[in-house]
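User: Structure please.
Assistant: Input sequence and predicted structure:
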Amino acid sequence: MTVAPAPDRRRRRHEQTLEEIVDVAAAIMGEEGVAGLSLGEVARRMQIRTPSLYTYFPSKNALYDALFSRGWELLNQAMTTSWEPGGDDPHGSLLAGVRAFTRWAVEHPAYAQLMFWRPVPGFRPSPEAYAAALTVRDGLHAAIIGLRADGVLRADVDLDEAATALTVLVSGVIGQQLANAPQDGFDDGAFTGRLPELVLMYLARYGTRPDSRSTTQGDDHGHPTQPGRRRGPAADDADTGTGGGAAAVRRVRRPAARPHR
């Protein structure tokens, strides 16, 4: 006599299959771009029939929704594990946080496109998926409050304005890097390499005592490094206005990298 699987076992199997589908979909997005995701290709790689996917996701937008949520959860995990706001060097901590956020986005371009921009016509994240983005946003606001309390930002700074300005700064770097120098890594990027000086510009506008020693050069923890970072052709292009650097910056305009609804 055949015994039906216990409900808990069926639920675990269902959840495992959901995760596998999202894994495969993320891999396809990484290869083909966000808009290149195909349910048929997901099914082929999982060796199941395409209609079987609808048991787990009623539409492709529902799958995008799961990918959107996972992306923000992964970013939140990366920020939590690689960045400690405040500390003995809050200026360096600010740079470290900016670098950690930007690094993750540059190293996960497909997720970044889905999370920050609108590459899929008609897709809007559900409230449940958007909650993951709000967790990251709330962490940013908490960090801004901490910077003001530590005296890094002026006491009269509008917190919402300061947070928005920081996201615009970061989004600009991410957008330019992914659009104009996608072949660059984070560490040798023509645009990511500008983060220390951009943070100084941010502090010049909102800060009380910007310290160039903490932010001129830094590793992912905000510790100063030796000047003279490794540069590639794209970085030279960005300085001279030739090739795919600054000239491309003038041609390509990106929306702000912020969670969309």
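Residues 210-217, 220-256 have pLDDT under 50 and may be disordered.
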